[in-house]
Each structure stands twice: as structure tokens, then as C-alpha cells.
Request: fold
Amino acid sequence: MTTDISNVTIVDAPQVFLAEDEMAGELLLHFYRELGWNGVDILDPCKVRTTREVCNRLYDIMYERYPNAVSVGMFMVNRGPGVDEYIPQGKVHLLDGWIMPAETDEIEGEM
Reply:
């Protein structure tokens, strides 16, 4: 993937964990929240890029909770951050537009 560096925020990869009562997929919610997502705005995981090491760590934690390699792998493909080889170890690149404000204004009378 080619990236315009002027539109990238580089941050440290957060260390996230699951509480004993949490489901495996909640790990990614913790990851994105630690990166700055508020849980309401629209998140585009395709615009969150990291290293294979960070992605594998997330996978391993989820796999420990839900030991189904195919299910966890497909979940990561669809919801997890992308991997780029040029990103320095332990870093995450947040591409411009990785979060977009949620539409909170409703037109009167519409739902």
C-alpha cells in the first residue's frame, strides 16, 4: 500500500488485554479506543496500519480466548488493522479519515 506520509499520524501501538469476562472480539474495540476512537464515530479499520508483530499479538490474545484459527483470522481480516512492512516496530499509522464524525443530527420527524 502506498501512503501519503503527510496524511498519517504515527503513534505507539497500545498494549491491550481482555478482562476475564470479555469476548475475544472486544480486544479490537479496546485497541481502537486506545488509539483515540470514541466508540461512536465511524471507524475505518482499513485506514489503521501497523506491523505484523502488533497484528500477531492481537491475534494471539483473541485466539487464546476463542481458539478457532479460521474464525479469529477472518475477524482480523474484516475488523483488524492492516499490516505494512515499512512501519517501524511497535508503531501504528493512522491514515487521514480513519475516524469520521457520526451523523448525530436527525432531521425532525425522521428516524
